[in-house]
Amino acid sequence: MILEELAFLVIAAVAIVTAANALLVRELVHTILWIALFFVDLAALYFLLAAPFLGVLELGVYAGAVTILLLFGVMVTRKRIFAREAVTGIGPAPLLLAGLVLAVVVVGAEELPSGEGTVHAYAPALLSQALFNADGPWLLLLGLAMLSALAGAIYLVREGRE
Amino acid sequence: MSAFSPAGLLALSGALLGLGLFGILTRRNFILLLISVEIAINAAVLNFVYFAAFSGSSSALSGQAIAVVLIGLAATEVAVGLAIVLGLNRLRGSINVAEASALRR
Amino acid sequence: MSLAEFLPEILLLAGALLIFLFDVLGRRRLELVGGVAALSLGGALLLVVADLGVSGLAAIRTVPAGSVDLPLAPSLYAFTSLGFVFQVTFLLAGLFVAVASLSRPSDEKGASVFFGLLLIATLGMMLVAVASDLIFLLLAIEVTSLSTYLLVAYPRRDERSLEAAMKFFIIGALSTALSFFGASLLFAAYGGTSFYALGPGVAFVGFPLLAEIGYGLLIAGLGFKVTAVPFHAWAVDVYDGAPTDVAAFLSGGSKKMGIFAFFLVFLGPILLLRSAPDALPATFGASLQLTLGILAVLTMTVGNVLALRQKEMKRMLAYSSISQAGYMLIGVAVGTYPAIAGAAFQVFAHVFMKTGAFLVVAAVAGLGVGPLIEDWKGLGAKRPALSVAFALMLLSLAGVPLTVGFVSKFVLFSAAVEAQGFYVWLAVAGLLNSALSVFYYARVLKAIFLDRPDPTSPVAGPLTGRIGLARSAVIAVAAVAIVGLGIYPGPVLSGISTAASHFVGIGA
Fold first, then answer.
1. How far apart are the first and last CA of chain C?
2. What SS3 class is residue B82?
3. Is C117 an interface residue toward A (CB < 8 Å)?
4. Nearest-5° angle of CA C294, CA C212, CA B11?
5. What ipTM is given for this predicted complex?
6. A68: phi > 0 → left, psi -120 to 50 → alpha, else beta; which?
7. Across the interface, do C167 and B100 touch by the CB < 8 Å criterion?
8. Whole-model pTM?
9. Do residue A78 and residue A133 come from a single domain?
10. How far is C138 from chain A (nearest CA, A)?
11. For a Cys staple, C465 with which of B2, B66, C367, C461, CB 3.0–4.6 Å?
């Protein structure tokens, strides 16, 4: 379908532009704005891929929570919020390495079917059944990771009398 | 030839991974490093989602399950990273990695 | 899923939760929380040793013998005897560090968070050892990684620790992103993530090029965890900046977790290459093995060469730890069962040698001696028992006969020679490197035993600091084990060999 094709091309372009801008602008607060746009854009892509649950999750967790966390981090660690990031020289090596990764992945992509794909939709109910039954241990592991993160992070930022 | 295809999507996620790597290698502010890592992890999440969407086999649903777990994991990492940054910031008042010099000799 | 099978893991989790509960209730004395941690680690160790089938402990087995070493199946986790061997190793590393830490000042801040995170990190490693699915494996690694970033940062008033944690975190997050991207490509190529789907049990269909790229990214991602060259640059700064007890845990535990992850991920394709070379695209298997071999040689050589130039004890040990990872990678690259047994034995021995050595460094720092190798001059006369234990650890790291390090290297290198062809060169590289490493270990031993202390150094003074009973006991146990296993490795070695042969049998 030509409409989906068009939508994908727009979304992909926006994703790359917002991600690049987030890394390249010099005001940190602007970085946060660009990365929020990036997350919203990815959520749109998930809706296009018939994965609405993931789209909502991306909006809630990334565009919502993570963005606010990052903004909070910027506000606490900068005395002036609009302070500018010093310009750092960009050597050829990082560009080369990043380009190499892109090239390798694109070469690999040639193996995949490049014709129009059929998108299969799954009922979110099936996803939750998978998450809590067959794939349940993954969630348990995530819970363990969150437990240690919680305990350690609270200790690190807790004000103590020392 | 259609862009909205597995090949086209892999090209997109490859570009995002490249951008993330580029950011990690060149940026010096810790927040920017965190954002670079998030972009790279999002590329992996995207891969799982669209492989699941295009494949249509019964096992492909677990691709979406992995994506759910990965989104949670990445958010946890941001929280841990910020905790370390805030701790360091309290001691020194700067989170510039280039100034992290106590270990360089 | 039977919960009883996971009793050792549950014990660790219960210990961690109990410690956090004590913390909330305001009971933060180091002896109390440390005691809970040591008890749960010890209990879990006992249970896992019983699972290995040691006679006399059959009554407390948590995993019935019938469900160990089953053929590969599409499941998320599976119990293997080699996994149990690694679990014993992880638990020993955790137990050593926990018990030695009991000797720290009892009013130390953050003791509860230190021991709680230590338990969860060990728990993550234990789960790595039972993984039978790539995502399960990577998530379990993540549990350990997140806990260890915070472990490095737990002296929150120390700028060096927090800087080390920051560096560790960024590199770890990068490795996570690369690993999961690689896993997603394998998911695309094979249509699943369990090792059954990836492994030799299923004919190779799908997209070979994608699989190759996916494995490449996994080598990079896991390479950061085992500090393989060229993914090693972070390790020395992190080990140096981290509290020494945490560095002991990192080198004895979380690096070994990476080695086992290498086994799980790469043994499938390597075994397939051995049993049915035609099943794989011609370039795929050979390039994979060549890559792993080059990685092993690079890692041990670069680690050793850089260790030669270090002036600081902790940094020297960190570089030597990198080179040891290179020896272990030989076992992955060769992929026969004697080689796997050699690598597993090397990992096991490493707990006594490297964790022990770091614990000695912490003890000596507690005596008020400085961080440089020069500062250790003349320590042999002042603290003979401690110095002899340290000497044993270094000799074992160098692979001198009658120590456990000699036995493990002998098994590993002879397995590489036995495998013929290109693998012989891996053994040669390993031998040359062992010879090279003798230089810097000998330099340290000369400083300790032959040199006189500088008049201004604390060693020339009365050395009034105390090491503590618990730490001394751990160091003594490690030193005795090094000699004991070096002279009489029989039962342990044969147990590990059987486990390794079962492990290869599962995949074939």
1. 25
2. helix
3. yes
4. 125
5. 0.91
6. alpha
7. yes
8. 0.93
9. no
10. 10
11. C367
Of A55, A83, A111, the residue at which a domain comes to its end is A83
pLDDT single digits (tens) C241-277: 999 999 999 988 888 999 999 988 887 777 666 666 6
Q: Which of residues 236-265 of C touch A (CB under 8 A)?
A: none
From the list A19, A23, A76, the residue facing B27 with the nearest CB is A23
Which of A83, A104, A134 is where one domain is finished? Answer: A83
The domain that holds B55 is classified in CATH as 1.10.287.3510
Q: How far is the C-alpha of C121 from the C-alpha of C249, rounded, in Å?
A: 10
Contact predicate C9/C143, CB 8 Å:
no
CB atoms B41 and C185 under 8 Å: no
Task: Spell out which residues of chain A touch residue C123, defining contact as CB-CB under 8 Å.
Answer: 144
Q: Does A99 reside within a domain?
A: no
Q: What is the pLDDT of residues C263-316, one digit of tens each?
A: 888 877 776 666 666 666 656 667 788 888 999 999 999 999 999 988 999 999
B100 in contact with A at a CB cutoff of 8 Å?
A: no
Does residue A3 sit in the same domain as residue A57?
Answer: yes
Give CA torsion, residues C355, C361, C367, C372, to 10 deg. 180
Of the residues B80, B82, B91, the best mutation for testing chain C's interface (the one with the most C CB atoms within 10 Å of its CB) is B80
Asked if the structure places residue A77 within a domain, the reply is yes
**Is position B1 within any domain?**
no
| Out of A8, A23, A95, closest to residue B4 by CB | A8
**Lookup: tokens for C241:** 């900046």
CA distances from B22 to A90, B9, B16, C167, C328 (A): 10, 20, 10, 17, 31
Give the residue numbers spanning the domain of A3: 1-83
Q: Print the domain residue range for B24.
A: 6-93
Note whether A145 contacts C109, CB cutoff 8 Å: no
- The CATH number of whichever domain residue A76 belongs to comes to 1.20.120.1200
Q: How many domains does chain A have?
A: 2
Phi-psi region of C70 (alpha: psi -120 to 50; beta: other; left: phi over 0): beta
